[in-house]
Amino acid sequence: MASEKPEAAPGSERLVFRFMKPGDEDRLQRMFQTCADYFQNVAGSGGPDAQAGAREIHAAGELKGRKVALITLREGGQPIGAAGWWAGNPKPDRALMGMLMIAPRYRKQGYGREAIAALEKYLAPEGIIAIRTAFQRSRTMVVPMVRALGFREMSVREHTELGAAGAGISLWEKKFGKEQAPPAAEGQAEAPADAPQEQPAAAQE
User: Does residue 80 contact residue 106 with C-beta atoms inside 8 Å?
Assistant: First the structure.
């Protein structure tokens, strides 16, 4: 019996995404702990809770289009970050970026922008034309980071379409093929594993 062909994953000249599956919870949790300042700066918590990695992997297995991956170096395979997205949400031609984090020692080296570019190339054949992310409007320190990754803030009308869910949320979108803003910082973004539609995500360097 032929072995199952591995699912194609995003990659770039320097990076390879490795999808997380049941059994990989500890690996993902360790990366979350390495990036504990993300949880501190974005969620105001002391760090990731003990089940954060398990929740992300469970959601990826239950929801169509939902993926979570470690970002690793192509040379040597060292994990340097994590990413999560939901293709086809909130529209068939959009993807919600729920998570993009780079470990502290690997920041300021362009890995965040390279990861976004790899994800765009991966999603485009699925008919996705833009990535969205969101965060609480009060997290003003996030704004220059998402701009550096090429996102633009969406209009008040687009926020209104979200109804009550849009209250207090800053919603951003990056259309594929659009020129990115001048690099200023790496980015990270995350939404809870059980977040429906466009719930708050965040970015942090």
Answer: yes
Contact predicate 192/198, CB 8 Å: no
Q: In whole angstroms, what is the distance from residue 21 CA to residue 135 CA?
A: 26
Residues 69-127 pLDDT 10s: 999 999 999 999 999 999 999 899 999 998 899 999 999 999 999 999 999 999 999 99
- For residue 142, the Cα-to-chain-centroid distance in whole angstroms is 14
